[in-house]
Design brief:
The complex is a heterodimer. By secondary structure, chain A is an alpha+beta fold. Chain A is built from 6 helices and 9 strands; from the N terminus they run ααααααβββββββββ.
Chain lengths: 241, 191
């Protein structure tokens, strides 16, 4: 049999996480390691690729011809006229051109980003801007909207709630969801004023283009489990500007 | 290794990789190409996991929307395109299965071992490890109980405790089956 290696346990955990058989404390540990250890995250990724061929056991089956038009329509909705993404891209063009004619929220955000941070004295210079990431979170169903801008220079996330209603006994929690990954808590968001959240170093690598920000309703103090437990009321993708 | 099949697989993989690059640039026709090249395989996977045509179709929509949004993150140096797509598809389908609370009922272990027809899909040739002959041979090398447990987890979204309950063995026993099975599977795919 194989000689036990010092990292054998980690390798097992990565394999099990990729297969999805963990629960309870082991699942929590695997999620935490995925975030804190790039080596572990790489192992999980490799194991996902390793076991992916098992999918080949499922017999191939052509879907109904009606499926593609459905998908095409859905793609149009997220990228077409009036879609959130297009609206956001328009906003981004405006921001890039330093036009302040965008929404009030956008203008507020530029203002905040350009201001030197009183806490640590770091600032995004208006003449040589650090690439920032922005997301527009919205949901027609919940009537929620908020904007977020992440400044990698100082790891701050500026959140501007547009329409966000408070509710007794509940708070709103913001999550970052890396592509193909699990939601990771960023912090609590209050209704009202723009606020600056300090993004923890361990989760900063998740702040990149294509990651998704999502807002969920949680008990006061935030999710007790480390994962969203309440409904997700708004979400949006991060874009680099 | 069969050279003509291999070079055709390489060609298919390159075409799909190129199409994904165009999708990343916002080319909707390229998304259609990705769909045409992969829909049969991924729909088969969704059906196997979800066991319901409507649910599988809804999941397909989510999968290709994900592809549309995330194609830019595909790194051909780390995985073959069909591997990348399979990981997305399985993850979406398992999420849906778990959300519906049907994870136990849908794929009993005894049914999980069903042998599927070869897919009529060109994508079965993509990537050495995806070669269906090699896959079958590698699964064949596992003990039946190891293979069944891994299939039930892969297609049924079952956790250790659920797998152990279904097979009526202690969780520790199930863990050692799955771990040994996964390590052997990897050794076999890497040969």
């Amino acid at each position: 049999m194989n000689q036990p290696r010092p990292d054998e346990e980690l390798e097992h955990l990565a394999a099990e996480h990729a297969l999805g058989v963990l629960d309870g404390a082991e699942l929590a540990r695997a999620r935490e390691l995925t975030l804190s250890s790039p080596d572990f995250a790489r192992r999980v990724h490799d194991w996902q690729s390793t076991i992916a061929p098992i999918a080949g056991e499922a017999a191939g089956r052509q879907p109904d011809p009606s499926l593609w038009p459905r998908i095409e329509k859905a793609v149009s909705q997220i990228s077409g006229e009036g879609g959130a993404v297009v609206q956001l891209r328009r906003q981004l063009r405006l921001w890039k051109g330093l036009s302040l004619a965008a929404t009030a929220a956008a203008a507020t955000m530029l203002f905040f980003l350009a201001l030197p941070d009183g806490g640590n004295g770091r600032a995004s210079s208006p003449t040589a801007p650090t690439p920032v990431l922005v997301a527009s979170l919205s949901s027609e169903q919940s009537g929620t909207s908020l904007s977020a801008a992440y400044d990698p220079a100082d790891g701050s996330l500026l959140v501007t709630p547009g329409l966000l209603k408070g509710a007794a006994g509940h708070q709103h929690e913001l999550w970052i969801i890396p592509e193909g990954g699990e939601p990771v808590a960023v912090g609590l968001v209050s209704p009202g004023e723009p606020q600056r959240l300090a993004v923890q170093l361990a989760i900063a690598p998740h702040f990149r283009g294509q990651s998704t920000l999502a807002l969920s309703v949680e008990p006061t103090g935030g999710s007790p489990t480390g994962k969203p437990t309440g409904p997700v009321i708004a979400s949006g993708q991060l874009f680099s500007i | 290794m069969n050279a003509p099949v291999s070079s055709r697989a390489t060609h298919d993989r390159q075409m799909l990789t190129a199409a994904l690059a165009k999708v990343a640039a916002g080319d909707r026709d390229a998304l259609r190409e990705v769909y045409d090249r992969t829909a049969a395989k991924l729909f088969g996977l969704c059906l196997r996991i979800l066991g319901d045509k409507g649910e599988a179709e809804d999941t397909m929509q989510e999968i290709y929307l994900s592809v549309w949004r995330r194609a830019g993150s595909f790194d051909p140096s780390r995985a073959s395109p069909i591997t990348w797509l399979s990981v997305i598809a399985r993850s979406r389908a398992i999420d849906r299965l778990r959300a519906s609370g049907r994870a136990r009922a849908t794929v009993p272990i005894e049914n999980a071992a069903e042998v599927s027809d070869p897919a009529p899909d060109a994508l079965d040739r993509l990537g050495a490890a995806e070669d269906s002959g090699q896959l079958a041979a590698c699964i064949e090398e596992l003990e039946m109980r190891q293979a069944n447990a891994i299939r039930a987890a892969f297609f049924g979204g079952l956790t250790y405790s659920e797998l152990a309950e279904q097979a009526d063995v202690p969780v520790g026993t199930m863990k050692s089956w799955v771990r040994r099975g996964l390590i052997r599977l990897r050794e076999c795919f890497e040969r």
